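Extended Data, panel c. Modelled sequence:
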Amino acid sequence: MNQCGMLSGLLRYRCTAEIFQRCGGGWMKPSSRALSSSTGLKVPVRLSSSSSYMKEMYLAWQGDHNSVHESWDTYFRNIHGSRPSGEASERRPSTLLQGRALSHSLDTTQKVVEDHLAVHSLIRAYQIRGHHVAQLDPLGILEADLDSFVPSDLITTIDKLGFYGLNESDLDRSFQLPSTTFIGGQESMLPLREIIHRLEISYCGHVGVEFMFINNVEQCQWIRQKFESPGVMQFTKAEKRTLLARLIRSTRFEDFLARKWSSEKRFGLEGCEVLIPALKTIIDKSSAGGIDSVIMGMPHRGRLNVLANVIRKDLNQIFCQFDPNLEAADEGSGDVKYHLGMYHERINRETDKNITLSLMANPSHLEAVDPVVQGKTKAEQFYRGDRAGKKVMSILMHGDAAFAGQGVVYETFHLSELPSYTTHGTIHVVVNNQIGFTTDPRVARSSPYPTDVARVVNAPIFHVNADDPEAVMYVCLVAAEWRSVFNKDVVIDLVCYRRFGHNEMDEPIFTQPLMYKQIRQQEHVLKKYSRKLIAEGAVTLQEFEEEIAKYDKICEEAYTSSKDEKILHIRHWLDSPWPEFFTSTGEPQSMSCPPTGLDEEVLQHIGRTASSVPLQDFKVHPGLSRILRSRADLVTSRQLDWALGEYMAFGSLLKDGVHVRLSGQDVERGTFSHRHHVLHHQEVDKQTCVPMNHLWPNQAPYTVCNSSLSEYGVLGFELGFAMANPNALILWEAQFGDFHNTAQCIIDQFISSGQAKWVRNNGIVLLLPHGMEGMGPEHSSARPERFLQMNVRLTQLHDSNWIMVNCTTPANYCHVLRRQILLPFRKPLIIFTPKSLLRHPEARSSFDDLTEGTTFRRLIADDGLANRCPGDVKRIIFCTGKVFYDLTKERKLHHMENDVIIIRLEQISPFPFDLVRVELDKYPNAELVWCQEEHKNMGYYDYVRPRFLAVVANRKPIWYVGRDPAAAPATGNKSTHINELKRFMETAFNLSTFHGRNI
């Protein structure tokens, strides 16, 4: 009998009993009914040895030849001497002989089956663990997975065949290939020797593929086909020449910088020069697939080379950055050349299509740019209507130590498939130096590979030896196609080395002597690859040398012209230009702000929508129905609470075509259950309604989205989103203001200083719930002192690095949100939002405070009884935020409305010098007090003190009232909190025995 047919029949029979269908990493046992229908067997199945399987099947066959698969029918006929079944019955051998024949046949068959199954297991072992023995390290001294142990189920020597019950004599036997491999090409059977050979080519060469953890059969099969099909990793002569030319540019650029500026830090790409042709291959392949905008982020290593040879920034602009005498033409501090970004539109020469390339500026916080890139990519996709990411994509480059060590990488990965944050697949390229600054990877990470974090989202990981340019190119082509087909993240791990130290001035041999002895002997990849192509006849030595000379000449000419540059224009390095927003000189189109008030009819319309359910037969929770009725009552009485004030701001901007996006933890409902911008059907799962999107027929879209439990990643994402379009209101809300501290890197490096370093304007709004309500140190303070300390001490909005407000009325909150968009320039806006004031009966506004002619009030003066006789006022208390309502309550309790004036600073920074001066001049006989609920070493004290002194010009003292200095921002004891509040409230109004402190 044909061995293949016999095996097929036996395997088909065994699957009816106990075969587990492989789905990526899991197993699924089919039902008995499904098994019966799929195999055609009509006999009962017992989970026993293969011999009992066949005996039972044989007995069934004797009763009915059609009860078994045709291959088994043939097999049993052969047992009976190839006679028809009738003859076999008439000339049946003795029972003893029949048993011996059957037993012998069954033993032989069982061995055949087990051998085939062993080969199938061998194939799967290579697919799962082949990358562990792949030849990935160009230096040949380290294992990419930090472990030199060879898995026992991988065949690397003949003696290990015994693991599978095979021996050397089996190497030339042919075996049936499973449907889960493509190594046979068009062949269904191969000798074991050839099977092992092809598996080693596919999985143990210069490419190691991690993908078997993916729980999607289609995706696993797609990857298998790309790497197992015979002859896939082949290139034409023209493709090899292009690859060589790109490698020449990458290598000679670094050589040129080293010759001209040998003592400068360049953070060059030496040791991973293949990164440049790799990126260009990804871009070419993506461009051919329809992508016309690529947004990239990367650390500093290789940035200048990427700017020069991928983005194609003018070389003279790069070289002039090395001139120490270059004067800055633009305001701001600027940044080092290997932190800057670039935006460039050009023709892709390989596809003859227009493409826009943007490299985002990034500080030395290596992975901080990751979510920023994703946010900007998402924004471009959103505004272009690119719902599937077929036009805009992102590429992120990483270092191996940072990729494994920095948590924002994990946070960014976990945004990759969330509906409101996905960019439909990012290609990650890890420049794997196999070392951190001076830290060996064996003490820098606990995972085998630096890329293991990508496994959490089932992203395939392609490890590749960076000294094999063709293997790198093939992996890049597969990665670009994967992203296009599946719209999922993919990781390319370029296992390379760092030819010099962390920077060119550093001596790495102090800490890695063996590695750097090998590196100094290591032949450059350009030499190795050029020699290979010359030997193949793909290029001649003369052509190779001419290509080098051609690029060297380009660099020399650019160097000469760079000397003519006397002024540094940072605006030439913008990664997110807004050409329609500025004049040709980069200045705002205007310096006036239109009114922020609204028409009464607009207010009423928004109010009615905010207090209703726009969809019919949409059942909301009874408690929410009561909230909506309360809103309706407020609208009827022409009143606003905090939630309605926000609704008015968002709704009116949507009417004017301004996209509004609110993101953060639990923002759809609101942490304090006040917002309810997304209504949930109480009886239909996943059915929701966003009333804000039902305000006007042709309104802009409103996006409100609960984020993952991340601050660093999500705030970076929203920052990037805000970079794409100045005519959109992008807001991020912290669950509690205190929680922004885990996103401090984004605040410090991008929001506070972004314009100074990179001339990067941004209008992002941070909503930070703040207030001392006795909720403990983690739910009280949004740390205003930190923002104030970083604020540029100027008086004009346009000159400030950000704007800080602490509104006390819903109307003022609405005005400042509208002003954020109506201003002719963009600055980040930090709003310390309330918690208890969300429902405070005194924290209400009238529609009159929002109607036409009204505007944002930087300072709210006291219009009470004392204002009638200003000469009799004995004390002016300046404050900001929630403490105002505590002060007014205390003043009323002491019947001091005629003696004490309470003035609110709604805009803290820039400081309202002009309005404060007016108020002080109004009450010449009053003593001055600054009151805050925060501790003296926190809050606003250090910021307002010198400004008040500047206004009063030392004519009178100013007293401090508030909590004493403390290490924690608030007490966690309710009784202590109440006593603290009572103590400083009494101090604020005790005129006869004042215990304040002179500031």
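The two ends are 103 Å apart (CA to CA). This feature is highlighted in the accompanying rendering.
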